[in-house]
Amino acid sequence: MKIYGAYFVLSILLGDVLLVESPEPINLEKDNIYDLNRICAQVATVKNYMDIHINNLKGSRACNVTLEADEKKSTLKAYFKKYKAGDACSGAVNLYDSRNFAQLGNEGYCKSEAPKGHYELGTSGTLSVAKGDSSIDAVIRVVEYYIKDKECPEGKFDCQEKNLCIAKSIACDKSADCPNSKDEGDECPIINWRPLYTLIVFVGIVLAFCVCAMVVWEETSRKKRGNRPLPPPEPQTIAPGRFDGAYTEHFGVPEKQPDTEPTAYSPIRSSPAQIPATTTSPV
User: Fold this and answer.
1) What are the mean pLDDT values of the chain's consecutive 10-residue runs (283 residues total)?
2) H or E stretch including 205?
3) How many other C-beta atoms can be found within 10 angstroms of the C-beta atom of residue 156?
4) 176: which of 115, 154, 181, 274 fits an S-S bond (Cβ 3.0–4.6 Å)?
5) Of 127, 125, 147, the residue nearest 136 (C-alpha)
6) Type and span of the H or E element at 181
7) d(CA 24, CA 184)
8) Are strands 63-69 and 43-46 parallel, antiparallel or unpaired?
9) Which of 79, 78, 89 is nearest to 136 (CA)?
């Protein structure tokens, strides 16, 4: 416990030194902007592209990041996606190619407006920011370009310029990665389907969760109702000597007549003579 506590204190007091000498590799993830202060003195492998954010370097140390292409048959180019600096900027920014040639001049770039164009780095390069006394807020995008023979490899977008191809995943993302901006031209759909697809998936997940919750709630309620004792049946009164009306109706059983005096019947004859009545009992 004491060792970890001492390390924590040293991390606060000597944060810059520990950060520069950190042996941890960079975990590159797609669609993320990487803070320059967190990747100083590191080797970063560029897979398709990476955005490096330079922010608030006032009074900070100098920082260098080595950039390497992910595939052998590819080259790196960098351009400034965002740039803001004061007129008295002294923290110069520079890009060095694989031959260690300064792309932004030997003294580096330190002006208020963003440098224009794409800068060739080769299979590897270096981003360097000098220690200065004024802040810079910029995003430098480093893109991996594939050199095609006759056509672009599968899954790559053809820039139709200088045999360059880029990953299809970074085409039509509102950042012109091809030098001629072909990847943000008329071929791009008006509607960006990526956020829409994400929204559809999110709504589907929410609906599925609601349906599952309703099913669980109904099943729980049914079990609770099943554990309750049934109420006693209501008493039913039937007239004495009679069948239930429903039973009579469905089964065609005649209703039983109430107990009364026997009725006398006399057969009908052609003779007008009357025959004494005989008593018969109902069947």
Assistant:
1) 35 35 46 81 91 76 90 90 80 92 91 88 93 80 90 88 89 88 81 65 89 86 69 66 52 56 57 54 53
2) helix 193-227
3) 19
4) 181
5) 127
6) none
7) 36
8) parallel
9) 89
